[in-house]
Design goal:
The structure is a homodimer of 280-residue chains. Chain A is an alpha/beta fold and 280 residues long. Chain A is built from 9 helices and 13 strands.
């Protein structure tokens, strides 16, 4: 490890990560948060918001491929997709790989994240140039309240649920999302880790069960997110999500039909987790 | 995070972990390595060897349960078990939960690790008092060369394969292990992570395939081991390992029949990984 080190300050984790830094590409402050782009010899460029690493170029596929492709392959015909957050563009990039998708609306509260990503993270932000992409600079919590039976898939790609992203895990929000989805729509959100955020995962799952008839949870291992065993919570109006229902034609690094199935926890452990019988 | 911080120095990972420290319980130096036991408010006690965290009390089950119970449940009648390394006692504790086990030999090169664990890590070292446990203070690489068709299961629970643990990943060593196993014996070793040590995982798998007719790989997520998506490499003389062949009677935090199956990677991804077609 070299001498110049970035020390992460994640208020939501019991560990701090230190990464070697070879370059500081950007440092600024938006109305919402501090934004930094640093370069690490091992991870490539990293986007840092309020001191917490949001993505690195090397391993971001472990998050974005899982977040986007599991719901989009579990849905028989996803045409109209809403992404809340995700200003870096990584989730949008994956969503737009689906030929079925006619319109992908990205609602990002912080327009400066998008501008920074367009400039410094070209492999992430590539989707912003797609004519099917619509960018809205607004609060996703408010935006979703204006729609009824509009979207096939809604994806929350937010920062940690502290501060302004906290409302995106409330039962109220899930009810707005339910209303904004078509009759066979589905919802997915990143919901932190099993190891370091178990109570949070459980709470979100329990709230989703009050709103959606089908609720599930899947995971992938994201090395730069403290807790690592990252969870994605699903609420679905009609379709189960454990099996892909369309052939996988998208080009990916790790996502596949078998990895889709494998991402879901075995049913017994999943139930223990939601019921609080799995204790740390 | 409090003001007193332990900064890990893992020569084998592109990240450094910082943990809050509430107490320093032990600091010493054996002929082989520096040994520390520290206490963290979130993780409980942690054993540190040469600056690298080997275990914490809170999450050690994610490693020890997987390392021990997968091979022991895939074997129809494990009576005679050899553990190489594992001086903290965690693997021994799990092995001795099996009623079939008549003898568990633990060969640890560094006797001081065992003494420190007995004193400071009672929940780990509990197995050392079991009459079925035999402790040998010797180099495991040499020890295993003296046996032929002796053991049902051989487990390598070593430090990172740098320094004196490196010989435990050589083809020579795997041939000695093969000879020391009974005709239906099986071998498992911790073999680092998919994300940060992919080349290492691949190399070990390829070497095992030169020696054993059945080779496999399974994983669990260990938060204190940098790379997190931890791998366990298996070489088996006769029995496949993906299915438990005996009912799970041992008391565990997470291991179960379904978690046994789920620990194995889907076959397509596993083959891509070993063949070098999964690239980071």
């Amino acid at each position: 490890m070299r001498d110049i080190v970035f020390i992460e300050r994640d208020p939501y984790a019991p560990v701090r990560h230190c990464y070697a830094v070879s370059k500081i590409l950007y440092q600024g402050k938006s109305p919402y948060q501090e934004i930094q782009v640093i370069e690490s010899p091992e991870f490539g460029r990293m986007l840092v918001l309020d001191g917490v690493v949001q993505l690195d170029e090397k391993y971001e596929f472990m998050y974005h491929e899982y977040l986007a492709h599991v719901p989009l392959h579990a849905h028989p015909n996803p045409e109209n997709v809403l992404i809340i957050g995700g200003g870096d563009g990584g989730t949008l990039r994956e969503v737009l790989k689906h030929e079925t998708v006619k319109r992908a609306v990205l609602v990002e509260i912080d327009r400066e994240v998008i501008e920074v990503s367009k400039k410094y993270l070209p492999t992430l932000s590539v989707g912003f140039n797609d004519p099917r992409a619509i960018v809205v600079n607004e609060d996703g919590y408010k935006y979703v309240q204006d729609y009824e039976k509009e979207f096939d898939v809604i994806i929350v790609d937010s920062t940690d649920p502290v501060g302004f992203a906290q409302v995106l895990t409330t039962e109220d929000f899930f009810r707005f999302v339910f209303r904004a989805l078509k009759d066979d729509g589905m919802f997915v959100a990143q919901t932190e880790s099993i190891h370091y955020h178990l109570e949070m995962v459980r709470t979100v799952q329990q709230r989703l069960r009050k709103v959606f008839p089908i609720v599930d949870l899947y995971t992938s291992v994201v090395p730069i997110y403290a807790g690592y065993w990252w969870t994605y919570s699903v609420g679905s109006k009609k379709h189960p999500v454990r099996e892909p229902v369309r052939p996988v034609k998208v080009k990916t690094k790790i996502y596949s039909e078998e990895m889709h199935r494998h991402a879901f926890l075995p049913p017994g452990f999943y139930e223990k987790l939601v019921k609080g019988e799995f204790k740390l």
